[in-house]
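Reopening this ticket.

The earlier resolution said the output was attached, but the attachment link was broken on my side. Pasting everything inline this time so it's all in one place.
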Amino acid sequence: PTIALARGGALETMVGLDAGDEPPTAVFFAEPTVEALAAAITTFEAAAGRFDPHALRARAAEFDRPRFARRLREYVDGRWSGFVARRAC
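Inline output:
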């Protein structure tokens, strides 16, 4: 599990405690202050039992290098095919 500032990539890759149906992978804090981080640590400690190791590993696997490379290649191939098709018209 992760404790992260609720901004940027963390929000795109992690699942917060209040995400609903998905198992959580993180506790987020809203402001980059000592107090907000301390509160997040307290929240994390209280919710430690809600983090499932299998769900954590599964979420991390979504961002491994082979999967990233495959998804990037599929995206680029798709965009290139669309570009070539438009130029042929």
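Reporter confirms the inline version is readable. The chain has a mean pLDDT of 93. The longest strand covers residues 2-5.
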